[in-house]
Amino acid sequence: SVVIQECYVQNTAREYAKLYAAEAEPLEGFGEVPEIIPIFLIHRPANNIPYATVEEELVGEFVKYSVKDGREVNFLRRDSEAGQKCCTFQHWVYEKTNGNLLVTDLQGVGMKLTDVGIATLAKGYKGFKGNCSFSFIEQFRALHQCNEYCEMLGLKSLRTTHQKQRKATSTKSKNLPNSSTVKKMVPKKAREHRDFISSEH
């Protein structure tokens, strides 16, 4: 059921958060670590909705530190300490699971988080039905900006390979006399190539 899956997602993410805290807390200057609150499944056989979840009520301003859609990643939360530590937590889980799993939808009050999601690169990773699309992992990899907490944990930048490719392409275009002619040429070539393949003409 959806409710059972919700418990599994949040409590799995909570286990990762505990491991993250165990590594981060001893580091000098890291400070408080985000915590994912537990969610409990209750069974009420007499009720027409037999399963429900119970969790601690969070009092205060509820903030979404990371959103499902990667395009919005980093903007809402870049400046807050909790937001940066959530970003680092995502990076840490991503690295720990060799890029197979990402905790998404980090939201809550201060450092207490709830209602999180999990995206997996492959269906059934660790017996896990990812409840978010794996494209979130691609978006995260492309958009994550490491911060001081990533550095404290010694996490590897996700941008290095991406930047190398970009540098290679940008140096090529510099050798050509005029960048605007390059821009005009590229779509034209692509168009001819497409017409040839589709053999419409």
TrEMBL record:
| SMART domains per UniProt | Alpha_kinase
Indicate what this protein is called per its UniProt record: ALPK2 kinase
Q: Keyword Cell cycle, does the record have it?
A: no
Give the domain of life: Eukaryota
Segments carrying the region annotation (Disordered) are 161-201
Please report the stretch or stretches of sequence annotated as the Alpha-type protein kinase domain.
1-158
**Keyword line:** Disulfide bond, Immunoglobulin domain, Kinase, Serine/threonine-protein kinase, Transferase
Q: Note one Pfam family from the annotation.
A: Alpha_kinase
The region annotated as signal peptide is: none
